Amino acid sequence: MISKTFPAHSKLAASSCERWWNCPGSVKATANCIVVTSSYMAEGTVAHDLSADCLLKDWDYEKLASFEGVEKSEGEHIITVDEEMIDAVWEYVEDVRSHMRPGAIMIVEKKIEIPEVHKLLFATPDCIIIWPYEKIMGFDLKYGAGKKISSYENKQLLYYILRYYIDEDVKEIEISIVQPRMGDDHVSTYAVDAEYMNSFREELAVKAKAALSPKAPLIAGDWCHKTYCPVFNTCKTANEKAQSLVAKDFTDAPPVSRLTIKQIVKVLDNQEFIKAFITKVVDYAKELAYQGENIPGYKLVTSQGHRKWSSEDAVLADFEGKHGSKMFEPKKLKSPSKMEKVIGKKEVVQYAFKPDTGYKLVTSDSKGEPISLTSAKEDFEEI
User: What pLDDT score was predicted for residue 9?
Assistant: First the structure.
């Protein structure tokens, strides 16, 4: 794996740029937090290491697949490389490689510094591809499968690509977030021009300086949960915001049908913050209960997953002669995404499609064309 000899994360880390950009006080508030690596974070690190090796060492799929079943130690966690991780990493690698062409430069997991903007701005982008005198592309692998992350004005990726924008004479800049486990629509790309990057550079300098001010204020918003702020569940400002959102407009909890458009928009604009705050409260209450605190009306119990075989070999030995084929799942056709890895995209494309699964309400800057209001009304009336 790639040797990681880089210094500790900057106080102005790229991964938390969205947070300190909007909440300058968060730098001081989180300075002494001990970051506990979860199993999900450890999985992500292993996936990133595999993807970097793939790109740097020009591995093919067969070489990558040879790591299936290998156990990797990451902090306190032992992560087993499985088929899902292999497929996800390969999806990312293919997406990145598809942007290579003669004369292009690929830079993988290389530390950057931006002292021209601020001495504490340094980071390690996943991958940068440069088409000299033409275009810079930045790629970020997100291994998580929980929530789709948008590249739209993504501060982390713009921070990453700024170093190369300063150094290279190009007119086109493009940032992409690749989330292979999110299905077919797993790549989010956002393009900006030189004017935008110049403006971002100037604003980044201002935000960096503000975030390091001793009197930098705490400001709560969507960035609290989007960047997994470690003090979110105990932050007084976040707590006050959550209370004000509910108490100010919904003291009497009116029926949904009686909400004004203004109230509906307010709920939509703050839904992620409210949901995240509730989740944090539940998690904190669970931790208190685990430590012995009495939570009136609640108790801590053991959660259980689906049943698993304690020994597949024992089951085969005992049942195979009695039940034969009844023991096994029927043969199933691979999904279009997995089939592409075997035979290529050209053969699959004519047989695959994305089915409509209903309607969803998204922000105006999200991907997708708005539907015809007439057809939507007709569909609703048929229900």
Answer: 66
Domain count, the chain: 2
> Using H for helix, E for strand and C for coil, what is the string for the chain?
CCCCCCCCCCCCCCCCHHHHHHCCCHHHHCCCCCCCCCHHHHHHHHHHHHHHHHHHHCCCHHHHHCCCCCEEEECCEEEECCHHHHHHHHHHHHHHHCCCCCCCEEEECCCEECCCCCCCCEECCCEEEEECCCEEEEEEECCCCCCCCCCCCCHHHHHHHHHHHHHCCCCEEEEEEECHHHCCCCEEEEEEEHHHHHHHHHHHHHHHHHHCCCCCCCCCCCHHHHCCCCCHHHCHHHHHHHHHHHHHHCCCCCCHHHCCHHHHHHHHHHHHHHHHHHHHHHHHHHHHHHCCCCCCCCCCCCCCCCCCCCCHHHHHHHHHHHHHHHHCCCCCCCCHHHHHHHHCHHHHHCCCCCCCCCCCCCCCCCCCCCCCHHHHHHHHHHC
Q: What confidence tier does 340 reach under pLDDT thresholds 50, 70, 90?
A: confident
pLDDT digits (tens, 9 = 90+) for 63-80: 999 999 999 998 889 999
The answer to whether residues 163 and 56 belong to one domain is: yes
Instruction: List pLDDT tens digits, range 188-243.
Output: 999 999 999 999 999 999 999 999 999 999 999 889 888 889 888 788 898 888 77
248-268 per-position pLDDT tens digit? 555 555 666 777 888 788 778
117 and 241 inside one domain: no
What is the domain range of residue 236?
223-290
